[in-house]
Amino acid sequence: MAKTGRPPWMIAASLFISLFFLWGSFNTSPIFVGALLKSFHWSHARVAWIPSILALAVGFTSPAAGWLLDRLEAPIVMTAGAILAAGGLIAAGHSHTFAGLFCATILFGIGLGASTWLAASVVIANWFGERRGTVLGLATAGMESGGMAMSMLAGYVIAHSGWREAYLALSLPALVIVAPLLAFVVRTRPNDQSGRTSLKPRRRCPAMKSERQYARAPSGCWWSRNVPMVRPSAGPSSIWSLIYSYSITAKRLP
């Protein structure tokens, strides 16, 4: 086995920790509803926009994050996302208007969309083969356990210090722990694999008209050579014969 530069378990542990803190902070959004209602005297409908816009920001960021992951290394995208997420939390803690909190929440969601589940899935798919399902389960466990732990942390800080301090407390792990892990430990793929996936279009395969051509087909075709070849029909006449037979049968039906 070729040297990979760092053991796979280190990659799995780093992703677990990253999802624990980042996605765990995502799950704390409902914890702030009561504190925001009490602090700003907004309506319930207005405060309900905060967790809703956070989920929308994460969802709409995913396609852009996937596009970036096709062109950049995963640590670059994930580290930038973690920093953006931390910046959104810090901005939320310093917000004094609904518009400011709204924009800070969008920034937080953009960072989460770039640094959490989608990018982690790409890294796991590149690093793990037979145990891919196990590592994906470990990553999911980090997300869910982080939601519980970070919600408890946010609730404690809100009760003893305030909601602004709670936002700042959630941003610290993203800056101090997650961003360095993603930047210096996580890699898109092991060192014994080639670089980024080529963005060139796949080569089209020639039409297979015989078993001999099928056996000599290049291995880079988009279809698998293990799939049995479907023999072509006798010619256009067979198609017209089928259509004619169907039309005759349809006319005789009551």
What does the secondary structure layout of this molecule look like, with pairings?
Blueprint: H1 8-26, H2 33-40, H3 44-69, H4 74-93, H5 98-115, H6 117-127, H7 132-160, H8 163-184, H9 211-215, H10 236-252
Helix pairs in contact: 1-6, 1-7, 1-8, 3-5, 4-5, 4-8, 5-6, 6-7, 7-8
What does this structure look like?
There is one protein chain. With 254 residues, the chain is mostly helical. It has a domain of 177 residues: Growth Hormone, Chain: A, CATH 1.20.1250. It is built from ten helices and no strands. Helix 1 packs antiparallel against helix 6, helix 5 runs parallel beside helix 6 and helix 7 runs antiparallel to helix 8.
Brief description of this entry?
The chain is mainly alpha-helical and 254 residues long. It has helices at residues 8-26, 33-40, 44-69, 74-93, 98-115, 117-127, 132-160, 163-184, 211-215, 236-252.
Looking at the structure, the CATH topology of the domain at 8-184 is Growth Hormone, Chain: A
Describe the largest sheet: none
* Relative strand content: under 5%
User: Which residue ranges are poorly predicted, with pLDDT under 50 across at least 5 consecutive positions?
Assistant: 194-203, 219-239
Rounded Rg? 26 Å
Number of E-type strands = 0
Structural class: mainly alpha
Based on Cα principal axes, name the global outline: elongated
The CATH class of the domain at 8-184, by name, is Mainly Alpha
